[in-house]
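Try this one yourself first.
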């Protein structure tokens, strides 16, 4: 786990006993992550991390973007969402099928300060679903340098390359800097 050596107890909202209905009405991944972190920070005096992530497809003007989870309706299966995206790119050549997974992480600190980090995982949209090691849009996300779909990558490699892993490692460094400033 990326944060394992931070010498801090890490709890999910559920583990902390926090229930909140959060309206994600930001216009960017960062805004949505900040909304979530600030809302949960109302219930604790600790550091709160929250993320927002999704898939951006360049040919589709960044769709599904911040609406990735709600794209085509919250109850629509990813198999249907994936088929729709692949169909919308029918006839589009590889070089124009560029896409990325994006993750923004916000940390709400006890003093009210909020810091954000971002990670991206570049690739392109494939022509079909492939692989079993993933969820969501992973089966249509092709990673050219490995000649595999994201859902075909080992969990270890995916964690190294992923948008969430990159954003979390960047946040870890930011939090270490903050702690060093406090302990000076």
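Now uncover the answer:
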């Amino acid at each position: 786990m990326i944060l394992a050596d931070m010498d801090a107890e890490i709890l999910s909202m559920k583990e902390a006993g926090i229930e909140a209905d959060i309206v994600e009405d930001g216009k960017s991944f960062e805004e949505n992550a900040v909304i979530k972190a600030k809302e949960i920070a109302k219930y604790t005096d600790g550091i709160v991390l929250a993320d927002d992530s999704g898939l951006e497809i360049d040919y589709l003007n960044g769709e599904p973007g911040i609406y990735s989870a709600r794209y085509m309706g919250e109850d629509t299966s990813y198999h249907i969402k994936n088929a729709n995206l692949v169909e919308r790119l029918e006839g589009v050549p590889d070089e124009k099928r560029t896409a990325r997974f994006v993750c923004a992480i916000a940390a709400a600190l006890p003093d009210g300060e909020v810091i954000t980090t971002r990670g991206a995982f570049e690739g392109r949209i494939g022509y079909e679903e492939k692989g079993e090691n993933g969820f969501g849009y992973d089966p249509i996300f092709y990673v050219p340098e490995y000649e595999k779909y994201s859902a075909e990558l080992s969990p270890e490699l995916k964690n190294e390359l992923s948008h969430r892993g990159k954003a979390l490692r960047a946040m870890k460094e930011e939090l270490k800097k903050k702690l060093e400033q406090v302990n000076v």
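Discussion: Helices lie at 13-16, 29-41, 78-88, 155-161, 163-182. The beta strands are 48-57, 63-64, 98-108, 114-125, 141-143, 148-149.
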